[in-house]
Write a structure and sequence with these properties.
CATH superfamily: Uracil-DNA glycosylase-like domain
Number of strands: 6
Distance between the termini: 79 Å
Number of helices: 11
Order of helices and strands: HHHHEEHHEHEHHEEHH
Structural class: alpha/beta
Radius of gyration: 31 Å
Number of domains: 1
Shape: globular
CATH class: Alpha Beta
Length: about 260
């Protein structure tokens, strides 16, 4: 039936007196006598006991506090990886295949922090292994550095703000970053690098706060007790090849800092 027909039928029922729905089951009014059936009185709720206290609603655990406690309890990187994998408060873990912790050489002078795993990273359980990761490797190889190198002076240690892949590779939310930041801070403390490189806007906002990567890339700052260099994310460089000139300048700035010239 169309809308006008249904409306006309409803108005006809109202004219007949069917203007109220009561009872859990239909009643055949033709089968009833002249006097309406007696209605059972509604049960009255029992008055509350004067001495009984009203139950309080359960207090949910603050995920940031929980993350801070779990991170602080991790004595080494292996324990931190286990604590992150077991952290129950981030919903991203439900849709991810792997908890992507880190790659490269712990103890390296340079620690690279990216945004979050993508599809390839989620499948392999390692950060920066897709097209953007391959570009990252080529970028640092140009200044004699790499994640596979045994020398901690030239090696890289790589991680992300989030260890789980966001659905459809969407950008992490501020709440997700704040939730996982205590793990990142403890990660930096345990890895003990000399320099942090923040790849892209998400780690920039999470660790330094304020401003955008376009305005702040290449400008040295300090955070977590370390010198920090923001750079364009390799995924951005794949989309915007013209920005590779700025990325090369940032790599040279990093190289100078490590040599003691910057």
């Amino acid at each position: 039936m169309d809308h006008d027909t249904l409306r006309a039928l409803l108005e006809w029922q109202i004219e007949l007196g069917a203007d109220e729905a009561i009872g859990d089951a239909p009643v055949d009014r033709y089968a009833l006598g002249d006097s309406p059936p007696a209605r059972a009185p509604a049960p009255r709720p029992a008055p509350p006991a004067a001495s009984a206290a009203a139950p309080s609603a359960p207090v949910s655990e603050d995920p940031v506090i929980a993350a801070r406690q779990a991170a602080a309890a991790a004595a080494d990187l292996a324990a931190l990886a286990e604590a992150m994998a077991a952290f129950p408060h981030c919903e991203l873990r439900r849709g991810a295949r792997n908890c992507v912790f880190a790659d490269g050489r712990a103890g390296a002078r340079v620690m690279v922090i990216g945004e979050a795993p993508g599809r390839d990273e989620d499948l392999r359980g390692l950060p920066f292994v897709g097209r953007a990761g391959q570009l990252l490797d080529r970028m640092f190889a140009a200044i004699g550095m790499g994640r596979e190198l045994p020398d901690t002076g030239r090696a890289l240690y790589i991680t992300n703000i989030l260890p789980w892949r966001p659905p459809e590779n969407r950008r992490p939310t501020a709440a997700e970053c704040a939730m996982m930041l205590p793990f990142v801070e403890r990660h930096v403390e345990l890895a003990a690098p000399d320099v942090l490189v923040l790849m892209g806007n998400t780690p920039l906002q999470a660790i330094l706060g304020g401003g955008g990567i376009t305005r702040r890339r290449g400008i040295w700052s300090r955070a977590l007790g370390l010198p920090v260099l923001p750079m364009f994310h390799p995924a951005y460089l794949l989309r915007t090849p013209s920005a590779k000139r700025e990325a090369w300048a940032d790599l040279l700035s990093l190289q100078a800092r490590l040599r003691g010239d910057g």
